[in-house]
Amino acid sequence: MIISRNTYAERAHYCLSPIAKNLFQLMDEKKTNLALSADVTSAQQLLKLADLLGPEICVLKTHIDIIEDFTPELTQQLRKLALKHRFLIFEDRKFADIGNTVKHQYEGGMYHIADWADIVNAHSLPGPGIIKGLAEVGRKKNRGLILLAEMSSAGHLINSDYMQSTLKMAEQFADFVIGFITQHALSKDPHWINLTPGVKLEDDQDKFGQQYVTPMKAIMEHGSDVIIVGRGIIKANDPLEEAQKYREKGWESYLQRCRK
C-alpha cells in the first residue's frame, strides 16, 4: 500500500511544478483537500456554486463544454472568484488525441482553456506526444497537467500495467504533470498529487456504474490527497452545509494519516 505520511507543506518542497507546489501550500494554509465537481449546465449556476462554496474548497473542477450559455465573460468571472476565495480551477477536459491536435484544443478554439484553467487532464493512451503538445502551451503559463491513471466507473478497461505505464510517462514530464486521477496512489514520490473522484460520505454506486468511496477510505486506505465530490454536494438540500461536512471529513482523514 503506497501512502505518504508527509504533510502537504512538506511535500510542496519536492515539487518541480509551480502549480503543484501552489496547490499543496494552498491546501495546507486553507485546511481543505476538497475539490468540487461543478457539473452544471448554466453560467449562473456555476458562478453561484463557485462563490458559495469557494471558501470550502481547494479546487473547482469544471466541464466548460456543458455550459449552455457560455461566453468568455464566464471564465473571467471564474478567475475573479478563484482569486477571491483562493482555489484553483481544474477543467476536466480529458484530452485524448495526438499532440498537435490537443495543443490547438488547449490553446485556442471557443474556450481558450489555457488562459483560465490552472489545471487540465488527459488520457495517457495516445502516448507521450499528448503531454508534449499540452506542455508546449501550458508550461509558459505555469499550468499543470493531471493524467488519468484509474477511473471510478465500473467495468473500466484500465489495468495495473496501464497505470504503471502512465506513471513512467508522467516521470518524464514532472515539471508539468502534477499528479493523477486515480483510486489508489501510484508512487511513493511525495510530489505527485492523487485526486480521487467518486467520493461520498457513504459507499454507494449509481445506475451508470459510478462507484463511490468514503473520504476516510480514499485518503487513509488508498492514499488520495484530494477528494473530488460532485452530486453529493450539489444535489444536497443545503450545499454549503454538505460541503463543510466533506471538508471536515477529508481534513480529519488527512491529519489522521499524517499522525500514523
Give an overview of the whole structure:
This protein is an alpha/beta fold. The protein has a single domain, classed as TIM Barrel. Helix content is 41%, strand content 17%. It is built from 10 helices and 10 strands. The strands form 2 sheets. It has an 8-stranded parallel β-barrel, surrounded by 7 helices. A two-stranded antiparallel sheet has the order 8-9. β2, α4 and β3 form a beta-alpha-beta unit. The radius of gyration is 17 Å and the shape is globular. The mean pLDDT is 94.
Can you tag this structure with a few keywords?
17% strand; alpha/beta; eight-stranded parallel β-barrel; two-stranded antiparallel sheet; TIM Barrel; 260 residues
Summarize the structure.
Helix 3 (43-53) packs parallel to helix 4 and helix 8 packs parallel to helix 10.
Number of strands: 10
Total tally of structural domains: 1
Major beta sheet summary: 8 strands, parallel, barrel
Architecture (CATH level 2) name = Alpha-Beta Barrel
Structure classification: alpha/beta
Q: Estimate what percentage of residues fall within beta strands.
A: 15-25%
- Please state the CA-atom Rg, rounded to the nearest Å: 17 Å
CATH fold naming: TIM Barrel
- Average of the residue pLDDT scores: 94
The percent of residues in helical segments reads 40-55%
Give the C-level CATH assignment: Alpha Beta
CATH superfamily: Aldolase class I
- CA(first)-CA(last) distance: 14 Å
